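Long-time lurker. I teach an intro course on protein structure, and each term I like to show students one example going from raw sequence to a predicted 3D structure in C-alpha coordinate notation. This year I'd like something fresh instead of my usual example. Would anyone be willing to generate the C-alpha coordinates for the chain below so I can use it in lecture? Attribution to the forum is fine with me.
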Amino acid sequence: MISQKTMRGAMLAALLLLATGLAQAQQRLKPFELGTSRSGDIDQVSAQVQQALTGAGFTVVGSYTPYSDAKFADGQVVSARVFGVTSPALKQAAAQDEFGGYAVVQRVTVTAVTQDGKTRVQVAYTNPTYMANAYRMKSDLAGVTAALRQALGSQQAYGSEDGLTAHRLRKYHYKIFMPYFTDPDKLASYAGHAQAVAAVQAGLAAHRGGTAQVYRVDIPGGKATLFGVALSGPPDNECSGDRHIMSRIDFAAVKSTGHLPYGMLVVGGTVYALPAKFRIAINFPDLSMMGSHSFLSIMCAPKSIRKALAAAAGET
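-- Reply from a regular --
Happy to contribute to a lecture. Here you go:
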Protein backbone atom coordinates (compact mmCIF):
# COMPACT_ATOMS: atom_id res chain seq x y z
CA MET A 1 0.00 0.00 0.00
CA ILE A 2 1.36 3.43 -1.02
CA SER A 3 1.85 5.76 1.92
CA GLN A 4 0.48 9.29 1.99
CA LYS A 5 4.03 10.61 2.17
CA THR A 6 4.95 8.79 -1.04
CA MET A 7 1.80 10.04 -2.77
CA ARG A 8 2.51 13.63 -1.71
CA GLY A 9 6.06 13.29 -3.02
CA ALA A 10 4.84 11.97 -6.37
CA MET A 11 2.27 14.77 -6.69
CA LEU A 12 4.90 17.38 -5.86
CA ALA A 13 7.25 15.96 -8.48
CA ALA A 14 4.46 15.99 -11.08
CA LEU A 15 3.59 19.60 -10.27
CA LEU A 16 7.23 20.65 -10.54
CA LEU A 17 7.51 18.90 -13.91
CA LEU A 18 4.35 20.62 -15.13
CA ALA A 19 5.59 24.01 -13.93
CA THR A 20 8.93 23.49 -15.68
CA GLY A 21 7.17 22.55 -18.89
CA LEU A 22 4.90 25.60 -18.72
CA ALA A 23 7.85 27.90 -18.04
CA GLN A 24 9.71 26.53 -21.06
CA ALA A 25 6.60 26.87 -23.23
CA GLN A 26 6.20 30.51 -22.17
CA GLN A 27 9.88 31.40 -22.56
CA ARG A 28 10.32 34.09 -25.17
CA LEU A 29 13.05 33.49 -27.73
CA LYS A 30 14.86 35.97 -29.96
CA PRO A 31 16.53 35.22 -33.30
CA PHE A 32 20.08 36.36 -32.48
CA GLU A 33 22.61 36.46 -29.67
CA LEU A 34 25.25 39.15 -29.23
CA GLY A 35 28.38 37.50 -27.90
CA THR A 36 30.57 40.58 -27.49
CA SER A 37 30.87 44.16 -28.71
CA ARG A 38 34.37 45.60 -28.68
CA SER A 39 36.79 47.93 -30.35
CA GLY A 40 39.23 46.33 -32.74
CA ASP A 41 39.96 45.28 -36.29
CA ILE A 42 37.40 43.12 -38.13
CA ASP A 43 40.11 40.82 -39.54
CA GLN A 44 41.70 40.25 -36.15
CA VAL A 45 38.36 39.64 -34.44
CA SER A 46 37.30 37.27 -37.23
CA ALA A 47 40.44 35.20 -36.73
CA GLN A 48 39.78 35.02 -32.99
CA VAL A 49 36.17 33.95 -33.61
CA GLN A 50 37.20 31.15 -35.94
CA GLN A 51 39.70 29.88 -33.40
CA ALA A 52 37.07 29.93 -30.65
CA LEU A 53 34.58 28.04 -32.82
CA THR A 54 37.08 25.35 -33.77
CA GLY A 55 38.09 24.95 -30.14
CA ALA A 56 34.45 24.42 -29.20
CA GLY A 57 33.99 21.58 -31.69
CA PHE A 58 32.34 23.52 -34.52
CA THR A 59 33.42 23.27 -38.16
CA VAL A 60 33.47 26.45 -40.24
CA VAL A 61 32.05 25.29 -43.58
CA GLY A 62 32.27 28.62 -45.39
CA SER A 63 32.43 32.38 -45.02
CA TYR A 64 31.91 35.54 -47.02
CA THR A 65 31.80 39.31 -46.86
CA PRO A 66 28.32 40.48 -47.90
CA TYR A 67 29.35 44.16 -47.81
CA SER A 68 32.20 46.45 -46.83
CA ASP A 69 31.83 50.12 -45.89
CA ALA A 70 28.14 50.02 -46.75
CA LYS A 71 26.01 53.04 -45.88
CA PHE A 72 23.23 52.10 -43.47
CA ALA A 73 20.68 54.15 -41.51
CA ASP A 74 21.61 57.13 -39.32
CA GLY A 75 25.02 57.64 -40.93
CA GLN A 76 26.31 54.19 -39.99
CA VAL A 77 29.01 52.60 -42.12
CA VAL A 78 28.90 48.81 -41.89
CA SER A 79 31.25 46.00 -42.88
CA ALA A 80 30.40 42.36 -42.19
CA ARG A 81 31.74 38.81 -42.23
CA VAL A 82 29.51 35.77 -42.02
CA PHE A 83 30.71 32.30 -41.05
CA GLY A 84 28.62 29.20 -41.57
CA VAL A 85 29.24 26.63 -38.84
CA THR A 86 28.04 23.11 -38.21
CA SER A 87 28.75 20.28 -35.79
CA PRO A 88 27.94 16.59 -35.29
CA ALA A 89 25.03 17.60 -33.03
CA LEU A 90 23.57 19.89 -35.69
CA LYS A 91 23.88 17.23 -38.38
CA GLN A 92 22.28 14.59 -36.20
CA ALA A 93 19.36 16.86 -35.31
CA ALA A 94 18.87 18.00 -38.92
CA ALA A 95 18.63 14.39 -40.10
CA GLN A 96 15.58 13.78 -37.89
CA ASP A 97 13.28 16.06 -39.92
CA GLU A 98 12.53 16.28 -43.65
CA PHE A 99 13.34 19.99 -43.69
CA GLY A 100 15.65 20.09 -40.67
CA GLY A 101 18.48 20.78 -43.09
CA TYR A 102 17.70 24.50 -42.93
CA ALA A 103 19.20 24.50 -39.42
CA VAL A 104 22.24 22.28 -40.07
CA VAL A 105 24.33 25.44 -40.43
CA GLN A 106 24.18 28.26 -37.90
CA ARG A 107 25.54 31.67 -38.86
CA VAL A 108 28.20 33.46 -36.83
CA THR A 109 28.83 37.10 -37.71
CA VAL A 110 31.48 39.73 -37.15
CA THR A 111 30.09 43.19 -37.96
CA ALA A 112 32.02 46.45 -37.75
CA VAL A 113 29.76 49.47 -37.26
CA THR A 114 31.26 52.94 -37.55
CA GLN A 115 29.25 55.95 -36.40
CA ASP A 116 30.40 59.42 -35.42
CA GLY A 117 34.00 58.35 -36.01
CA LYS A 118 33.84 55.43 -33.56
CA THR A 119 33.93 51.76 -34.58
CA ARG A 120 32.57 48.83 -32.61
CA VAL A 121 32.94 45.23 -33.73
CA GLN A 122 29.95 43.04 -32.88
CA VAL A 123 30.35 39.27 -32.61
CA ALA A 124 26.94 37.60 -32.86
CA TYR A 125 25.23 34.39 -33.98
CA THR A 126 21.85 32.92 -34.80
CA ASN A 127 20.01 31.44 -31.83
CA PRO A 128 19.79 27.69 -32.62
CA THR A 129 16.83 27.15 -30.29
CA TYR A 130 14.86 29.94 -31.97
CA MET A 131 15.64 28.51 -35.40
CA ALA A 132 14.81 24.94 -34.33
CA ASN A 133 11.31 26.04 -33.32
CA ALA A 134 10.85 28.22 -36.40
CA TYR A 135 11.76 25.19 -38.55
CA ARG A 136 9.53 22.86 -36.48
CA MET A 137 12.33 20.47 -35.56
CA LYS A 138 12.09 17.56 -33.13
CA SER A 139 15.21 18.82 -31.31
CA ASP A 140 15.33 22.25 -29.67
CA LEU A 141 19.12 22.41 -30.26
CA ALA A 142 19.58 23.58 -26.66
CA GLY A 143 23.00 21.93 -26.47
CA VAL A 144 24.18 23.77 -29.57
CA THR A 145 22.90 27.05 -28.17
CA ALA A 146 24.84 26.44 -24.94
CA ALA A 147 28.00 25.56 -26.88
CA LEU A 148 27.88 28.77 -28.93
CA ARG A 149 27.32 30.84 -25.81
CA GLN A 150 30.28 29.17 -24.14
CA ALA A 151 32.52 29.76 -27.17
CA LEU A 152 31.51 33.31 -28.12
CA GLY A 153 29.83 34.80 -25.05
CA SER A 154 26.23 35.82 -24.46
CA GLN A 155 25.86 39.53 -23.80
CA GLN A 156 22.23 39.76 -24.89
CA ALA A 157 19.55 38.14 -27.01
CA TYR A 158 18.19 40.48 -29.67
CA GLY A 159 16.31 40.82 -32.93
CA SER A 160 12.87 41.21 -31.37
CA GLU A 161 11.84 43.49 -28.52
CA ASP A 162 9.56 41.00 -26.78
CA GLY A 163 10.61 37.73 -28.42
CA LEU A 164 8.37 34.85 -29.46
CA THR A 165 7.34 31.72 -27.60
CA ALA A 166 8.24 28.33 -29.02
CA HIS A 167 4.53 27.69 -29.60
CA ARG A 168 4.15 30.81 -31.73
CA LEU A 169 7.36 30.16 -33.62
CA ARG A 170 6.17 26.71 -34.62
CA LYS A 171 3.11 28.14 -36.40
CA TYR A 172 4.65 31.49 -37.31
CA HIS A 173 3.55 33.73 -40.13
CA TYR A 174 3.96 37.48 -40.24
CA LYS A 175 0.48 38.54 -41.30
CA ILE A 176 -2.67 37.02 -42.73
CA PHE A 177 -2.08 35.69 -46.25
CA MET A 178 1.68 35.55 -45.63
CA PRO A 179 3.44 32.17 -46.01
CA TYR A 180 4.11 29.64 -43.27
CA PHE A 181 7.20 27.47 -42.94
CA THR A 182 5.19 24.75 -44.66
CA ASP A 183 4.78 26.88 -47.82
CA PRO A 184 8.26 26.61 -49.37
CA ASP A 185 9.30 27.85 -52.79
CA LYS A 186 9.91 24.84 -55.06
CA LEU A 187 12.65 26.13 -57.33
CA ALA A 188 13.38 23.11 -59.54
CA SER A 189 12.99 19.34 -59.73
CA TYR A 190 15.32 16.63 -61.04
CA ALA A 191 15.36 12.86 -61.43
CA GLY A 192 17.24 12.35 -58.17
CA HIS A 193 19.23 13.93 -55.35
CA ALA A 194 22.62 13.70 -57.04
CA GLN A 195 21.32 15.39 -60.20
CA ALA A 196 19.69 18.19 -58.22
CA VAL A 197 22.83 18.85 -56.16
CA ALA A 198 24.98 18.88 -59.30
CA ALA A 199 22.62 21.37 -60.98
CA VAL A 200 22.66 23.75 -58.01
CA GLN A 201 26.44 23.45 -57.69
CA ALA A 202 26.84 24.35 -61.36
CA GLY A 203 24.37 27.23 -61.15
CA LEU A 204 26.13 28.77 -58.17
CA ALA A 205 29.57 28.29 -59.77
CA ALA A 206 28.28 30.15 -62.85
CA HIS A 207 26.83 32.90 -60.58
CA ARG A 208 23.44 32.63 -62.23
CA GLY A 209 21.06 35.28 -60.95
CA GLY A 210 23.93 37.02 -59.15
CA THR A 211 24.40 34.07 -56.77
CA ALA A 212 27.53 32.51 -55.27
CA GLN A 213 28.08 29.51 -53.03
CA VAL A 214 29.12 30.25 -49.45
CA TYR A 215 28.88 26.69 -48.15
CA ARG A 216 27.48 23.24 -48.82
CA VAL A 217 26.62 20.69 -46.14
CA ASP A 218 25.28 17.20 -46.79
CA ILE A 219 22.87 15.99 -44.11
CA PRO A 220 23.42 12.40 -42.89
CA GLY A 221 21.28 9.93 -44.81
CA GLY A 222 22.29 11.12 -48.26
CA LYS A 223 18.96 12.64 -49.26
CA ALA A 224 19.32 16.31 -48.24
CA THR A 225 21.91 19.03 -48.85
CA LEU A 226 21.96 22.66 -47.73
CA PHE A 227 23.61 25.40 -49.77
CA GLY A 228 24.38 28.83 -48.35
CA VAL A 229 23.90 31.42 -51.08
CA ALA A 230 25.28 34.94 -51.37
CA LEU A 231 23.23 37.38 -53.45
CA SER A 232 25.08 40.21 -55.18
CA GLY A 233 22.03 41.87 -56.72
CA PRO A 234 23.09 42.27 -60.37
CA PRO A 235 21.92 45.33 -62.35
CA ASP A 236 18.92 43.46 -63.81
CA ASN A 237 17.87 42.17 -60.37
CA GLU A 238 19.32 44.69 -57.89
CA CYS A 239 16.55 44.23 -55.36
CA SER A 240 17.76 40.71 -54.51
CA GLY A 241 21.15 41.92 -53.25
CA ASP A 242 22.33 41.36 -49.68
CA ARG A 243 23.59 44.94 -49.37
CA HIS A 244 20.42 46.40 -50.89
CA ILE A 245 18.12 44.61 -48.44
CA MET A 246 20.16 44.84 -45.25
CA SER A 247 20.99 48.53 -45.66
CA ARG A 248 17.25 49.23 -45.63
CA ILE A 249 15.92 46.96 -42.87
CA ASP A 250 18.89 46.25 -40.55
CA PHE A 251 18.64 49.65 -38.86
CA ALA A 252 18.95 48.76 -35.14
CA ALA A 253 22.19 49.48 -33.28
CA VAL A 254 23.02 45.77 -32.95
CA LYS A 255 23.08 44.30 -36.44
CA SER A 256 21.16 41.23 -37.54
CA THR A 257 23.82 40.20 -40.04
CA GLY A 258 23.06 36.53 -39.29
CA HIS A 259 20.02 36.81 -41.56
CA LEU A 260 22.56 36.10 -44.31
CA PRO A 261 23.23 34.08 -46.39
CA TYR A 262 20.06 32.59 -47.86
CA GLY A 263 19.58 28.84 -47.92
CA MET A 264 18.69 26.46 -50.74
CA LEU A 265 17.77 22.99 -49.51
CA VAL A 266 17.85 20.01 -51.83
CA VAL A 267 15.59 17.22 -50.56
CA GLY A 268 15.56 14.20 -52.83
CA GLY A 269 15.39 15.61 -56.35
CA THR A 270 13.63 18.88 -55.43
CA VAL A 271 15.33 22.21 -54.75
CA TYR A 272 13.57 24.31 -52.11
CA ALA A 273 14.00 27.70 -50.49
CA LEU A 274 12.03 29.38 -47.75
CA PRO A 275 9.89 32.19 -49.21
CA ALA A 276 11.58 35.54 -48.59
CA LYS A 277 8.36 36.81 -47.01
CA PHE A 278 8.72 34.09 -44.35
CA ARG A 279 12.50 34.12 -43.98
CA ILE A 280 12.84 37.90 -43.64
CA ALA A 281 9.93 38.01 -41.20
CA ILE A 282 11.25 35.20 -39.00
CA ASN A 283 14.60 36.99 -38.65
CA PHE A 284 13.05 40.47 -38.35
CA PRO A 285 9.74 39.75 -36.56
CA ASP A 286 9.33 43.35 -35.35
CA LEU A 287 9.73 44.86 -38.81
CA SER A 288 6.77 47.09 -39.63
CA MET A 289 4.79 46.75 -42.83
CA MET A 290 4.78 50.48 -43.64
CA GLY A 291 7.07 53.45 -43.07
CA SER A 292 10.84 53.85 -43.22
CA HIS A 293 13.00 50.74 -42.77
CA SER A 294 9.92 48.56 -43.31
CA PHE A 295 8.82 45.76 -45.61
CA LEU A 296 7.58 48.50 -47.92
CA SER A 297 11.18 49.68 -48.38
CA ILE A 298 12.10 46.26 -49.82
CA MET A 299 8.79 45.54 -51.52
CA CYS A 300 10.54 44.23 -54.62
CA ALA A 301 12.81 41.83 -52.66
CA PRO A 302 10.69 38.65 -52.32
CA LYS A 303 10.15 38.16 -56.05
CA SER A 304 13.72 39.25 -56.82
CA ILE A 305 15.21 36.78 -54.34
CA ARG A 306 13.12 33.94 -55.70
CA LYS A 307 14.17 34.84 -59.24
CA ALA A 308 17.86 34.76 -58.27
CA LEU A 309 17.62 31.45 -56.41
CA ALA A 310 15.54 29.84 -59.15
CA ALA A 311 18.17 30.82 -61.72
CA ALA A 312 20.85 29.12 -59.64
CA ALA A 313 18.65 26.04 -59.18
CA GLY A 314 18.20 25.72 -62.95
CA GLU A 315 14.50 26.49 -63.11
CA THR A 316 13.20 26.28 -66.65
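Some talking points for your students: The longest strand covers residues 59-71. The chain has ten helices and 13 strands.
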